[in-house]
Predict the 3D structure of the following.
Amino acid sequence: VQLVESGGGSAQAGGSLRLSCAASGYSVSTGYMAWFRQAPGKEREGVARIYTGSGNTYYADSVKGRFTISRDNAKNTVYLQMNSLKPEDTAHYYCTNLPDWGQGTQVTVS
């Protein structure tokens, strides 16, 4: 299984970024996928998850209403649309199907 994140970068507060997680060796259409993040000096925390069988999604309170997790089954890719970004969203973002993890992508909001 390989998970490859992309789409990170720098953004102004109030701006938007979309992260992508391309999966291989694992079908995002039939499994569980989630986004986590880790800021310097802090523990890794769950941000959003999607149960791809049901399509149900769950969000951390800190991102609810601003972030959206979605999937494209044809591309076998999961996305994290991040709007109304805040400086406290600055972190390294990882996608996972638990137990596999990508290498992550950095998001910096100023």
